[in-house]
Amino acid sequence: MTEVKTKVREVKLFIDGEYVCSSENSLFEVKNPATQEVIAKVHEASREDVDRACLAARRAFEQGPWRTMTVQERSNKIRRMAEIIIERKEELASLEALDVGKPYPVALGFEIPRSAHNLKFFADFMEQQGGEVYPMGEDFLNYTRYEPVGVAALITPWNLPFMLTTWKLGPCLATGNTAVIKPAEATPLTVSLLGEIAKEAGIPDGVINVIHGYGGNSAGEFMTAHSEVDMISFTGETSTGKAIMKTGADTLKKVSFELGGKAANIIFEDANLDKAIPESIRAAFMNSGQVCLAGSRILVQRRIFNEFIERFKKAAEELVVGDPQDALTNMGPLVSEEHYQKVTSYFEIAKLENSTLITGGKRPNLPEYLKDGYYLEPTVYVQEDPKARICQEEIFGPVVTIIPFDTEDEALQIANSTDYGLNAVIWTDNLQRAHRVSHSVRAGTIWVNCWFVRDLRAPFGGYKKSGVGREGGHHSLEFFTEAKNICIAL
Ligand code: NAD
Question: Which positions are annotated as active-site residues?
Fold first, then answer.
């Protein structure tokens, strides 16, 4: 294994078709989570920079030609962005792996291709859309158009930076809106390249702007309060969603929120454990558990409880934790020291709550050059009380809790006993039970005998405190458009 070589990049703001410096010459550092070396100095957008970006987006929206060109012309340019992403996939994947600390093969094989697909999917999907005509006899023509809303603030988290940004940018652009994007402060590298990718694809200046900075009392809040921003599409923590909703309320912005999760992964006694165990391991530890859809509450029916624990423990211990740039690594570090402190604080809470530690709960032994990274072993607890904090709160790290249950009703009751409702996973060979339980779990996505299988046409979003609205297919298009009805006397 060779030491990761890093250079310090300068990351600028992208406003009105140009990379520019922070007007206050304020820069912040970004570190490689694997080693804690500084990998970038990032220009922080001041209030004035945010204002310039929002005004550029407004001008590009009002003056066209983005909003007024044909759907096909727009879609062609968005598809060109997707092609450029694929042409540059190795570079983008290595930057994503460097910035987030995720295994390079995952970024290369899954996240970057999916990011390109997000753009291409919405470009193609938009070309299939029509309006509506309501026949009213011979005297009137009554029809509906779907028009772009205006300027969108797209705010994304650090766990899947490029994939989640393109997931919002695709429908935003395809419907003719303009965007001001703010990636998370910890992981700005790939998203900052969207500026040059858009330019090369022929997207007009001002249509895409990328600013950098923090949330409250910084670039994020300046954007969400800005009078030229018409709508906010946000993915991140539930508490941030609440803050953004308050800030956006004064100017009545439309909002679409994808927030936190604490998915129940329910293993019934008739489940095929040969499939359920490897998928539950993936659901628990992919991206070091830093996934909103993580199956972090594993509910196991008592008759198979011991067998499940034994096999799950063995599989968790086989995961390779280490350098994200190494092809053999399954799990890299946590994204930052701050996040590591949050995740490990649950070890103390777990102890106080009398949880039983099955495996993990500490830093693994790693080579000297990784000594500063915030690595954790895959960590598994058993907890009988589903109301314990480790069963209720989103830990967002490689930490899962296994909870026993006896009956289907009890499983349902536990599954529904959190404030979150993003997704759930059900393992059973009983078809009736699969449907019955799917209908009763209060969550936006239910996976039966699988996890993280996505069709981009399907609605994606959360019940309860896991979100507001839905993304995906026509749900995204509805958010990014205003329906206008026109009635003409003939
Ligand atoms: P976060 O809420 O801390 O930050 C997300 C983004 O919001 C960042 O760009 C941040 O700078 C910005 N922000 C923070 N405060 C803000 C404010 N007051 N005004 C405007 N912007 C502000 O989230 P995170 O820690 O980056 O990401 C982890 C969270 O994201 C987890 O809760 C996870 O479940 C959630 N998530 C949800 C989904 C989903 O699809 N539901 C997907 C991925 C992650």
Answer: 258, 292
